[in-house]
UniProtKB/TrEMBL annotation:
<feature type="region of interest" description="Disordered">
    <location>
        <begin position="1"/>
        <end position="32"/>
    </location>
</feature>
<feature type="domain" description="SET">
    <location>
        <begin position="34"/>
        <end position="146"/>
    </location>
</feature>
<keyword id="KW-0489">Methyltransferase</keyword>
<dbReference type="GO" id="GO:0008168">
    <property type="term" value="F:methyltransferase activity"/>
</dbReference>
<dbReference type="GO" id="GO:0005694">
    <property type="term" value="C:chromosome"/>
</dbReference>
<dbReference type="GO" id="GO:0032259">
    <property type="term" value="P:methylation"/>
</dbReference>
<keyword id="KW-0158">Chromosome</keyword>
<keyword id="KW-0808">Transferase</keyword>
<dbReference type="InterPro" id="IPR050777">
    <property type="entry name" value="SET2_Histone-Lys_MeTrsfase"/>
</dbReference>
<keyword id="KW-0949">S-adenosyl-L-methionine</keyword>
<dbReference type="InterPro" id="IPR001214">
    <property type="entry name" value="SET_dom"/>
</dbReference>
<protein>
    <submittedName>
        <fullName>SET domain-containing protein-lysine N-methyltransferase</fullName>
    </submittedName>
</protein>
<feature type="compositionally biased region" description="Pro residues">
    <location>
        <begin position="7"/>
        <end position="21"/>
    </location>
</feature>
<dbReference type="Pfam" id="PF00856">
    <property type="entry name" value="SET"/>
</dbReference>
<dbReference type="InterPro" id="IPR046341">
    <property type="entry name" value="SET_dom_sf"/>
</dbReference>
Amino acid sequence: MPSLRPLIPPAPPEVPAPAASPAPRGVPADPQKYPVNVGPSAIDGQGAFAGAAIPARAKIGEIRGEFVDMAEARARARRAERDTGRIFMVAVSERRAVDATASTDPLRYANHACEPNMVLKVQQGRVAFYALRDIAPGEELTARYGATHHGGRLVCRCGSPRCIGRL
């Protein structure tokens, strides 16, 4: 009489998962937690766009740059406004700012909106962005800039029905 064995195939041999390789020494880790793409914006110039769905309250990523004192930040902002019209500066305290002009972080292209889908938080000198609500892939990522060096001279183009009109 034949033996009664269950017809269950043997388990495949266990293959260890590849170890995540750390960034080379001296190279900072990528601060982006979700993919962000840069492209033409209906709001202004270039914009940052969600490369995947982002859940509410998730950290999207950070922008990095050169730390400068506020006097230097103001001088650079004046020069950039005069030369290119584009300023990538974030105050992180009363005395210091991050100049993200030379940064490759895509969130530096996040435009202002009066009804944004993310919030900018400065934590321990780092500039991080968090989703205020669920964000769909391809949606433009926006933040409320707050007080700016424009002093109300720049027209807001966010398109919100609740637009404040000027920055």
